[in-house]
């Protein structure tokens, strides 16, 4: 791999980790559009651009998800009974979505990703939060939520944090427990998503060397290495910087990155 691509992946990892620590978000919203652009510049066939970006992004989230899970568990902020009820459905939803993604053309995936990120960005700009209006549902209700969260997360390569926190706070779960439980749920989403993209892309042709299915491991290693170290820096600065303003700036960045990704997959 040329030195410029190594530096690009390292820089991407540094930015993703920092933003995840600072704002509690990042992941696919940043990685997928940028990876799509990098892969295109590296000469990867257009038919695989978004699939590889999604799979590589999911795999890159695994280490961050594990670190976040451990941190929240130490503070006893994880509602493990909820995690155990959600996880089977999350695994089914995530794996099913990776299978669906493998069937969809690049342009369709790009449009879905961009529309979802526009929705996320709008929520951040307007500071829209669900009002607590009910209690946690039973096993069936939690399973339906897990199925939806896992499926959407796999299609846009996120750890499911924004979706899980919104669902739990809507069900009158304290925000600290909602965030901690969301961190725990992010681990099976990241693992299942990574495995799903590897399996469903197994027979794909013209993927880069050192790829397994739709996961490009050189990028995963380089991104994860830097994000592991920059996430704590962002977390420490979260209490010193105007996070509310930064979220709005970040939301605008998400929209611009998504538009750039659409430009790459439609016009090269």
UniProtKB/TrEMBL annotation:
It comes from Limnobaculum parvum. Belongs to the 4-toluene sulfonate uptake permease (TSUP) (TC 2.A.102) family. It is found in: Cell membrane; Membrane. Keywords: Cell membrane, Membrane, Transmembrane, Transmembrane helix. InterPro entries: TM_pro_TauE-like. Pfam families: TauE (PF01925). It is a multi-pass membrane protein. One of its GO terms (cellular component) is plasma membrane. This is Probable membrane transporter protein. Its main location: membrane. The chain crosses the membrane at residues 6-36, 48-66, 78-102, 109-128, 148-171, 178-199, 211-229, 249-267.
